[in-house]
Amino acid sequence: MNAFLRIFLVIIAFVMLVFVLRKIKKSEMQSDDSVFWFLFAASFVLLAVFPQIAFFFANLLGIESPANFIFLYAIGILLIKVFSLSTKIAHLRLKLNALVQEIALREKDD
């Protein structure tokens, strides 16, 4: 893994941390979401500081380049996050529909 990718990972992690801290400061993000982004950024720093981790998993999975493993890792983690958010949205949509129906029934009775 070359130095450019390692520096890029640290810069991306720093930008993520600054962005998340700004959202927390403005109360636009909940703590459970911020923990995910902090850990995600920390994993990038960990991969940049210890490139042996990327080499190990790239060899384990049969991936040619550790850089490709890092991209695969980021895509995989983000797909898991998107799926998690989709299920959360579906659950909230069901709760919203139930609430709207309950309010409509109360207004009808009045």
**Looking at the structure, what is the overall shape?**
elongated
Taking the sheet with the most strands, its summary is: none
Protein structure class: mainly alpha
Instruction: Compute the number of strand runs.
Output: 0
List the total number of helices: 4
Helix content: over 70%
Distance separating the two termini: 69 Å
Proportion in β-strands: under 5%
Return residue spans where pLDDT drops below 50 for at least 5 consecutive residues.
Answer: none
Question: What's the rounded overall pLDDT mean?
Answer: 94
Domains counted in the coordinates: how many?
1
- Compressed to H and E, one letter per element, the order equals HHHH
Q: What Rg is obtained from the alpha carbons, in whole angstroms?
A: 20 Å
Overview of this structure, please?
With 110 residues, this protein is mainly α. It has one domain. It is built from four helices and no strands. It is elongated.
Write the layout of secondary structure elements.
Elements: H1 3-25, H2 31-49, H3 51-61, H4 66-109
Helix pairs in contact: 1-2, 2-3, 3-4
Brief descriptors of the model:
110 residues, mainly alpha, 4 helices
